[in-house]
Specification:
- With 168 residues, the chain is α+β, with helices and mostly antiparallel strands.
- The chain has one domain (3-166): Orthogonal Bundle (Transferase(Phosphotransferase), domain 1), CATH 1.10.510.
- The chain has helices at 10-23, 82-97, 138-156; strands at residues 35-39, 63-66, 72-74, 100-101, 110-113, 120-122, 129-130.
- A hairpin with a 6-residue loop joins strand 5 (110-113) and strand 6.
- Helix 2 packs antiparallel against helix 3.
- It starts with 9 loop residues before the first helix and ends in a 12-residue tail after the last helix.
- The relative contact order is 0.17.
- It holds the Pfam family Kdo.
- Residues 1-168 form the Protein kinase domain.
- GO terms for molecular function: ATP binding; protein kinase activity.
Length: 168
C-alpha cells in the first residue's frame, strides 16, 4: 500500500493493530493491555448522561475496550530500570514480528506498572500500520537511542539527553 493509499481512520488503525497483536499472543504475555473488543459508530443517546459530549458530534463515536491496569505510569527517570527497558525493546520486537509498526514509539506510549519491577506495556496504536510481513527496525533504533539517553540521565539524576524524546 502506498503512503497516499494508507488508512487514516484512527479507530481502524488502532483496532486492527490490537486485533492482530491479540491474535499473536501479545495481550497474554503482557506486552500490550488485553483487548476486549470494539464497537463502531454507535448511537451515544443510549449511554446518557455519560456520553453527552458526543450527542452533537458530526460523526457517531467508535470505541475500543482495553484492560484497566492499576498503577500504570509513563517510563521516566524515577522508574527506569535496565530490565524494564530491555522488556520494552523485546516487546517492540514482538510487535514488529506480528507485522505491526507502532509509528509513535515515544515515552508517552511506554508504560510501566509501579508494583511490578519488570512489566513494560506498549499502548496507543492509533497511528499503527499493520503489515503482512515483519516491519523494519527503524522504531527499534529509536527506542534503543531512548534507552541509551535515559540510562545516561539516570546516572546523573537529571533529565538531559533523553529530554527531546518527551517533547514530541
Amino acid at each position: 500500500m502506498s503512503r497516499k493509499d494508507r488508512e487514516l481512520d484512527i479507530h481502524v488503525l488502532e483496532s486492527t493493530a490490537y486485533q492482530r497483536l491479540k491474535e499473536r499472543g501479545l495481550c497474554g504475555r503482557g506486552v500490550i493491555p488485553h483487548f476486549f473488543g470494539m464497537t463502531e459508530k454507535f448511537d451515544p443517546q443510549s449511554c446518557q448522561p455519560y456520553l453527552k459530549m458526543f450527542l452533537h458530534d458530526k460523526y457517531l463515536p467508535s470505541a475500543i475496550f482495553l484492560e484497566y491496569i492499576p498503577n500504570l505510569e509513563m517510563i521516566h527517570l524515577h522508574n527506569y530500570s535496565q530490565k524494564r527497558m530491555a522488556n520494552f525493546i523485546k516487546g517492540l520486537r514482538e510487535i514488529h514480528e506480528a507485522g505491526v509498526q507502532h509509528r509513535d514509539p515515544k515515552p508517552r506510549n511506554m508504560m510501566i506498572v509501579k508494583d511490578d519491577s519488570e512489566r513494560a506495556v506498549w499502548i496507543d496504536f492509533d497511528r499503527a500500520e499493520t503489515h503482512n510481513i515483519p516491519v523494519l527496525d527503524e522504531e527499534e533504533g529509536i527506542v534503543l537511542g531512548f534507552r541509551d539517553c535515559l540510562q545516561a540521565d539516570c546516572a546523573t539524576g537529571k533529565l538531559d539527553e533523553a529530554y527531546l524524546f518527551y517533547c514530541t
